[in-house]
Amino acid sequence: MHAIRVVLADDEPVIRAGVRAILAADPGIDVVAEAADGRELVDAVLAHRPDVAVVDIRMPGLDGLAAAAEVRRTAPGTAVLIMTSFGEDAYVARALGDGAAGFLLKTGDPREFPLGVRAAAEGGAYLSPPVAARVIRGLAGDRLSRSAAAREQVAGLTNREREVLALVGEGLSNAGVAARLHLAEGSVKTYVSTIMSKLGVPNRVRAAIIAHEAGLAGGR
Predict the structure, then answer these.
(1) Which pLDDT tens digit goes with each residue over 95-122?
(2) What is the CATH number of the domain that holds 149?
(3) What is the pTM of this model?
């Protein structure tokens, strides 16, 4: 199995060096290029066609959000992981709509970076736990009404679909869900597509949030 190819984008050289060192410690991950702004990121992705782009949410010129959207449009085979800091919740909420595969907290546990990269590369979604909690609060408004709405949404799912959604909410990839539930990976892919259609969500991250809000994942 080939190493997961990553392009890393952050305008701060120290941050890039630190994240690169964390990822390089994993023999299954290969950082093939770095970028200091959004335009460099898009060019690097088109040149290298990596499995995952790890992108700072704020960069000069073409910012991280715009660059991530451009990557999703021009290189749909590349999953995008957004790096964020505390106080950037509004940016995180916007990135959800652009199909980001997950969010990593810059000041969080370094072990989350390879975990997030692996989940994204395998078609999963990864939410750093502190980011997940903030995103859910930010989207919630009235938490009780959001929870009730989420429970109503998942009520239309079959028991198996709810099991799959719960594991998506934990950040598992299709392969991870298949292993946990003893299903074929192709069957899981079909389940996930059906679940997103029934829930009316555009990506796995939105589905994962509904899983949290409905109490299927995250220990709510």
Answers:
(1) 666 677 888 888 888 888 998 899 888 8
(2) 1.10.10.10
(3) 0.70
